[in-house]
Amino acid sequence: MKGIELPINILVIVAIAVIVLLGMVALYFAGWSPFSQTAGIEAVKNSACVGYTRNNQCLDDPATVTITFDVGGDGDATNDNLQDFADMYYNCGGNPNCARRLCACPGY
Question: Is pTM beyond 0.70 here?
């Protein structure tokens, strides 16, 4: 009785598949995800907008709404505000109405 013979190309494909799988597992455990930054920015936007739209504050200047996110990447998140965040990540260009639309303020 003859044993099962596997062609070399099948062994190579299986080896590559195992290497790719191990790489994906390593990236998962390292916490890397292509969507993590986008999800983080959306979470910051949602949190800032909830605070901004509460109590009909949509009439206030978005630059007066402080957020706890390092917008400029300078390591200091104490002076950052909703307008700077909207300019940096949503291309609002200093337009406060753009930031208001971002937060779904009525009438903007």
Answer: no
